[in-house]
Amino acid sequence: MLEMRFHARAGQKMEAAVELLTLAARAEGKYAQGFTKRSSSSKESSVRGFVRVDEQPITLNSEIEEPDLIVVLDEELLARREVTKGLKPTGIMILNTTKAPNQIREAYGCQATLGVVAADQIAQEILGTTLVTPPMLGAVIKVTQVVPLEALEPLLMERLGPVGKKNFAALQMAYKETVIQERES
After folding, report:
1. CA atoms within 13 A on the CB side of 16
2. CATH number for 135
């Protein structure tokens, strides 16, 4: 089973990423579950998302404490220890950043396999907005191959109509531009 945990700030529409990835996996004949949880403090509000995908029925129904994959929609969230907490030793972290993987390793002490993508820039260039959900989904698909990239296109078109084409283009660009650097020993 592939277990993924997403971290985002409120308003980044991470809930849509969790839902679309879950629906795409089901459309491909896999078992999938996804849900989100909001947490807020007096300073700021954040959202965590959880996705499980498997070839077998999923009987767990809980938050993911030890994910195979952590997806961070805002690099500033890495300053919080709980974001990377529990990542499996063979786990992967995908991050929205303009920095190279070695810069992330130096800044945050990350040893996991890293996938980095400039989702903010892709969203601005293609969508004319800061909505990073489509580019981040492209990065997730590149790193995990959990579903074919094309599995998202009909879902985006169904949900967004003509704007779905632009969202799929952002997803495709992120898929191509995501840089993966293997885990440091």
Report:
1. 18
2. 3.40.920.10
Give the 3-state secondary structure of 7-37.
EEECCCCHHHHHHHHHHHHHHCCCEEEEEEE
Q: Is the Cβ–Cβ distance between 94 and 181 less than 8 Å?
A: no
Rounded Cα–Cα distance for residues 65 and 58 (Å): 16
Could you give the number of structural domains in the chain? Answer: 1
> How many alpha carbons lie under 13 Å from residue 81 in its C-beta half-sphere?
0
- What are the residues facing 3 on neighbouring strands? 52
Model confidence, pTM = 0.92
Strand, coil or helix: 92: strand
Q: Is 141 exposed, middle or buried (0-12, 13-18, 19+ CB in 10 A)?
A: buried
Residue 77: give the domain boundaries: 2-181
Mean pLDDT by 10 residues, the chain (185 residues): 93 88 97 88 74 96 95 89 88 95 88 94 95 95 96 94 95 96 82
Which H/E stretch holds residue 43? none
